[in-house]
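ok so I'm stuck.
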Amino acid sequence: MSRPVRPSRFWETLAVVIVKPLSWLLVKKDWRHGERLPRAGGVIIVANHLSWVDPLLVSHFLYNNGRWPVILAKAGLFRVPFLGAAVRGLLAIPVERGSDEAIRSLKAAEGRLADGAAVFFYPEGTCTRDPALWPMVGKTGAARLALESGAPVIPVAHWGAQDVLPYGEKKPRLFPRKTFRVSVGRPVDLSGYAGRSPHADVLREATADIMAAITAQLAELRGGKAPETPYDPAGR
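replied:
not stuck anymore, here's the structure
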C-alpha cells in the first residue's frame, strides 16, 4: 500500500501551526465517520462547497484523520507573492479554469494519486449558488480522474462554514461560536462505468452519482430532504 503523500516538514509544520489553532478558535466540532477515510493509498476526496473558509476547516478534519489533502487550487493563487510559494509547498495543484490547461491539472492529480496522495476536489468548482445551499450540478473533473485512475472516491459533506463566513462576505461572524459538522460517506460505487469510454455522457452520469453521494451525506447532517433535482447555475 502506498505511503501517504505529505509536504516537507517545514511547510507541514507551518500550516499546522496556523490552521489548527485558527480552526479550533473559529468553530466547535461535530466530526463523524472519520474512520471511513482510507489511511493510505491514492484516494479522491470530494466535498460540497459553502464558504471560502471551509477548505481550512475540512483540511483540518482530513489531517486529524490521517490524510494530507492535496487541493486543486485556482492558478491565480500561485502567482501571489509568498502565498504562491506556500501553496506549492503544501502540494496544491494549480487549475486554470476554463482552459485546456485544466487537463494538465488532472494529469498532475493522477500522478499524485499514483504516489498515494489524497486529492481533494470541490466538484462544483465554486461555492454553491443553490438558494438553500444544497450541492449544485458538478463539473466532470473528479469523475474523469476516478474513471481513468481507478482510485476510490470518498464523499465528504459539511455544514456550518457558511455561518462563519457566508459566501460573498468578507467579515467573519465569530460570535456566538458556530458548530462545524462534517461527515464521511462510503466510497461512491462507480463500478457500472468500468470498461466504458469516458465520453461526455458517461462523465456526466458518473458526476451525478458523485454529487448524489455528497448530497446524501449532507441531508443526513442537516436532517432535511434534499431537492430531487440539483441546482444548475448554467440553466441546463
